[in-house]
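Lab notebook: predicted structure, single chain.

Context: the supervisor wants predicted structures on file for every construct in the current expression panel, including those that have not yet been purified. This is the next one on the list. No modifications to the sequence; it matches the entry in the shared construct table.
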Amino acid sequence: MRSKYIIGGAIIVIFTVWALLSFNSSLTPYVSIDEAKASDKTVQVKGERLGNGQFNLDNNRFTFQIRDENGVEIEVVYDGPKPGNFDQASHVVCIGKYKNGKFHAKDLLVKCPSKYQEEGIDV
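Prediction complete. Output recorded below exactly as produced.
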C-alpha cells in the first residue's frame, strides 16, 4: 500500500517539474536592443516607431525602424503584411530574434495612443 503512495507522489513531482520547465521555456522576456543583439533566444523588444516603414509586395515583407528607451535604433524585418493600425502607432513591440544585422520579428504588437485619454477641456 505504501509503495502506491510513493509511486503516485513521484509521478506528481515529475509532472510538476515538467510543467514548470515547459512554462519557463515559453516565457519571452522584454529586453533592450543591445541585449537582443547579444541574445540567441526569442525576445521582445519595445521601441518607438520611426517613420512608416516599407512593404515589399513581392516577398510579403515589411521593414521599419524602431528606437528603444536608450536611444538605440534597429531595423526590424517582419515576414507579413503591414499591420492596419501601424501608422497610428506610437510604439511597437517586436517578438523575434536578432540575426544578420537586423531584428527578424515573428510577431508584432502595435501600441496605439489610447483613445481613452482625457481630452483637454477648457472650463
